[in-house]
Amino acid sequence: MISIKTSEDIKGMRVACKLAAEVLDYITPFIKPGVTTGEVDRICHEYMVNVQGTIPAPLNYCPPGYTPYPKATCTSVNDVVCHGIPGDKVLKNGDIVNLDITVIKDGYFGDTSRMFFVGEPSILAKRLVETTYDCMWLGIAQVKPGAHLGDIGHAIQVHAEKAGYSIVREFCGHGIGKNFHEDPQVLHYGRPGTLEELKPGMIFTIEPMLNAGRREIREMGDGWTIKTKDRSLSAQWEHTVLVTETGFEVLTVSAGMPAPPAFITQPITTTPLTA
Ligand code: MF3
Ligand code: CO
Ligand code: CO
Questions:
Q1: Per-residue pLDDT tens for 177-235?
Q2: Which superkingdom does the taxonomy of this entry point to (predicted)?
Q3: Helical ranges in the chain per DSSP H
Q4: pTM of structure
Q5: CB 129, CB 115: distance < 8 Å
Q6: Confidence at residue 273, expressed as pLDDT on a 0 to 100 scale
Q7: 111 assigned ligand-binding residue
Q8: Which residues surround ligand 2, an ion (CB under 5 A)?
Q9: 100 in ligand 1 pocket by Cβ < 6 Å?
Q10: Domains of the chain (ranges plus CATH)?
Q11: Alpha-carbon distance 212 to 241, whole Å?
């Protein structure tokens, strides 16, 4: 069952989601060759707790069958698909890294991730990251009352496969609100017109993971880190979105967020970014 959020819930989600995006704005200048993923995590963690008054949702998060997640953020570098645990890894020129931030504010969860280039990316890495970004936005552009979850997955799948990339199937977007992960599952592949119909007040994430090579993954011995089986590069972007009466509102917005692609012609938020 997909919950319909109350106007009070939506207000709380706007706040939490914007704060999550603002952590990404804050950390951006620190992501340079020579920094460790553990340093990046520590800086984000301190900003959340000491400046924002938010709680990092990943810390000690423990879904069934998992061990408690040990850090405040996920840092997924190069062939890491998702859930990379920050540590001693030093970022070097040419790396690509996804930083996934989920904060809790007044009981509401905001979840967003971006890709970062460390120094100068290869042409291949740049194309993968940009294609994944467009996939996320093509998915978001499907969101409106009467559309179906399968429309989102289909739009993402068509664009990814046209570019020669594969889509990870084991992880998906998710409903979110007073819980980190709620119904529905938002698959990043699918058929138009299938699965649940979207209704105003639903809130979920869209967070496609694209691999430069094959879609198969493997889990590392730490119980969390997911890598591509063929060691090809992987990229991911994530926004939390609200279904409105006429379309979508992106909730994980901030002053420093990358601009939407040119094919997004409607306003992406109802509230000014500076409010
Ligand atoms: N933020 C991730 C998501 O988008 C979930 C991370 S779970 C963690 O759903 F425990 F690894 F942090
Ligand atoms: Co998510
Ligand atoms: Co996330």
A1: 999 999 999 999 999 999 999 999 999 999 999 999 999 999 999 999 999 999 999 99
A2: Bacteria
A3: 7-27, 37-46, 123-141, 149-162
A4: 0.98
A5: yes
A6: 57
A7: yes
A8: 111, 205
A9: yes
A10: 7-250 (3.90.230.10)
A11: 26
